Description:
Elements: E1 10-21, H1 26-47, E2 50-55, E3 61-66, H2 71-79, H3 82-85, E4 94-103, H4 109-116
Amino acid sequence: MTDSGIPAGVSVETIYIVEISYAPDAATTRPAFRPQHLTRIARLMAEGRMVEAGGYLDFSSALLWVRAASEEQALELVRDDVYLRNGVWLDDPRARPFGRVSVSTCLPWAASWALRSGSGAPWTISVMRTAATAPTAGPSQ
């Protein structure tokens, strides 16, 4: 472990989770703008500026996980979207900093299994592997 208590092979990155409300008529207005919106989201993901994005299926709001230097920059990125410019979203985005845990792809299986199987770490880390040599999943802590 490092001085900050984060084990080797594990990192915590500050990102911003932005929530934005859909307009009451979003279910009918969204289809015309969805291809352009999803193309932009895919580009931002490829650039590493967007981590995850999606909307609740009840059209209440959308969540966007944004890599940005500040809350203001995260909000600017979300506000610069075809959904907001065309009334699919309301202009009410809210951003909060979030500590995103990730595991290095170089983390040895023994270490990842020890973290996952209750080595005293206060979190659960799931590591997926498709090769036939992947460890058998055990109980989650």
